[in-house]
Give the backbone structure.
Amino acid sequence: MKYVVGVADMKLARECGDLIVTHALGSCLGIAVHDPAARVGGLLHVMMPLSSVNPEKAKVNPFMFVDTGVPLFFRSLFGAGVVKGRMVVKVAGGANVQDAQNDRFGIGQRNYTVLKKMFWKNGVLIDAEEVGGACPRTMYLDIDTGHVWLNTAGVERDL
C-alpha cells in the first residue's frame, strides 16, 4: 500500500510492501522514523515551529506544528510497537524556497531549530538529514527496508 502524507499530516505503516511518501517539503520538515525489528515506520510533515502562533489551529490539527505534532507522532509510533533504542530517524526539508536573499521569517530554519531542541531534550538522535537550501523535496520511506530517499527536481538520492 502507498500512503501519501499531506501537509500537516502523518501516516504509520507496518505491512510488507508499504511505502509512505510526502511531497512539497519546502520550509516544512519531513520526519521519517523506522524500527527495523518491529518493521513499523511513520512519516510526519510539519509546517510551522510553534503552536503558540495559533493555539486554536493546533487543537484542530496538532501535526501542523513541530511542538505539538512531533510528540503526538512519537506517541503514535511507540503505541504501534516502535522502541526508542531501535528507531532510525531521518529528517528533510527546512528549505527557503521563496527568496533566499530575503528570508525574513526563516520558517524552515526555525522549524529545524525547534525540532533539534526537542530531540536533544528527549535523547533522540538524527541518523541522517538533508535540511536547508532553496529547493522543495519529496521524501519516501519503505517500511520493509527502512530505506529513505529524496527526490529534488527529478533527481533521486538516498538519505
